[in-house]
Amino acid sequence: MNEHLRTALGLAASGVPVLPLRVGKVPFGNCRTCAKNACGGRPNMKHAGLCTCSRTCHGWAAAATKPDVLTSREWAPAWAQAAAVAYHPGGAGLTVVDLDNPDAIAWASRTLPCTQTVPTTRGEHWIYRGAMRSVNGVRDGVDIKSTMAYARWLGPGTGTMTALPDAVRALAVKEPSTVRSAPQAITVPAWAEGGACRHRTPAYLERGIAMAEQRITDARSAVHTTVYRTFLAVLSVHGRCGCLTDAHIARLFTAAQTKGESPRHCTDAWNNARTRLGL
User: Fold this and answer.
1) DSSP string spanning the chain?
2) Cα–Cα distances in Å, from 244 out to 12, 169, 192, 200, 274?
3) N or C: which end of the chain has fewer CB within 10 A?
4) Within 10 A of 67 (CB to CB), how many other CB atoms are there?
């Protein structure tokens, strides 16, 4: 048994989903059965639409905790060639704030609560307890790795892991400095009569967003269609009065991405729903 597989099995035993990385810190390529994500990219996971392929071919979604999967014949060639071990933070209920340069580290030291810290080649990983959606480029040199992402295992680090703070969650719904990670809040004309928004009651709006999240989460098939129709339903009720904020939209996008939708598919579905309604 090589060192990387031994490390992976130790992490898996503690409930951390792991996968091998080849040279260049990238996962092994898709197998023929699952090429171009034909299976939905969800092997070895407890969700609907599972791929039954046991090969290490899906990046973050191939991360596993079962020893019989990690040591299987299908995975053996990958571990033999592995240059490093990666893990799926979101699958372990974690979020990694990847700080890629000294300026980013200085910003985090001023802004974020102290937590477990792991040195990297160029900076540090700050690891928090709690999962959220992954976003690259939330600030210069700062990425968030959690759901639908993988991070290289670089050791346990130092410090005590703390709960995921609102300051990190907020990064995923603010407009980033270089890469757009979330849609802008919908700004549409107020009601013609100029009165207060009839939907701007916390209970009404919260119930609507929660129901939409649940509808996406419960989808067992046709996820693309379900996401689009759910976005359409939300916008048909709340799209013309300015109720929706970045935070609400981010919750819907997070639910969709947890089911396997890419950020681009989410954005396309949202924009198509707006176009359909003439927003």
Assistant:
1) --HHHHHHHHHHHTT--EEEEETTTEEPPPPSTTGGGTT-S-BTSSSSS-B---SS-SGGGG-B--HHHHTSTTTHHHHHH-SEEEE-TGGGTEEEEEE-SHHHHHHHHHHS---EEEE-SSSEEEEEES--B-EEEEETTEEEEBBB--EE-----BS--EEPPHHHHHHTTSPPSSS--SPPPP--PPPTT----TT--HHHHHHHHHHHHHHHHT--S-HHHHHHHHHHHHHHHHTTTT---HHHHHHHHHHHHHTT--HHHHHHHHHHHHHHHT-
2) 40, 18, 18, 9, 13
3) N
4) 12
Tokens of 18: 């792991």
pTM of the model: 0.61
User: What is the tens place of the pLDDT at every residue in 196-246?
Assistant: 455 556 667 777 888 888 889 888 878 888 898 899 888 888 777 767 777
pLDDT above 70 as % of the chain: 80
Task: Please give the C-alpha separations between residue 170 and each of 9, 45, 251, in angstroms, as whole numbers.
Answer: 34, 28, 12
Tokens of 33: 């059965």
Pairing state of beta strands 84-87 and 151-152?
A: antiparallel
| Per-residue confidence (pLDDT) for residue 193, from 0 to 100 | 34
As a whole number of angstroms, the distance between CA 192 and CA 240 comes to 11
